[in-house]
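HUMAN: Please help interpret these tokens:
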Amino acid sequence: MAQIFSSIFISYIILDQKWYQRRICAFIGWVVVFAMVFVMHIWAYFYQRAYTRQSVLPATNIDIYSSDYPAHVWLMIFYGFLNSMWQTYAYWPMGTMSNNLTKFAVFTGFYE
């Protein structure tokens, strides 16, 4: 669900605005994706900075009743959000380079 919502957010709300030029939309999209990358990496850093191999017991399990579970779930949800934003933003400039589907297939092949 997070990937669906983020793809809709980045494409319809930011990249496909008719009242801005494509260059402005591309820059705004780049800023949003760039900011999201930094937010997610900082969040992951704070999540993992207390982690060491000695701090984890061999039988440490996390389940839905653990106090750390909601933080892990939200982190993974926002990872999916970032992943979809990144992919949508990566394909959008390729689609704006040409209206020819053959060229788009070549660009996509290079990306993948």
User: Anything to note?
Assistant: The helical segments are 2-15, 22-48, 69-97, 101-111. The chain has four helices and no strands. The longest helix spans residues 69-97. Residues 14 and 100 are 23 Å apart (CA to CA).
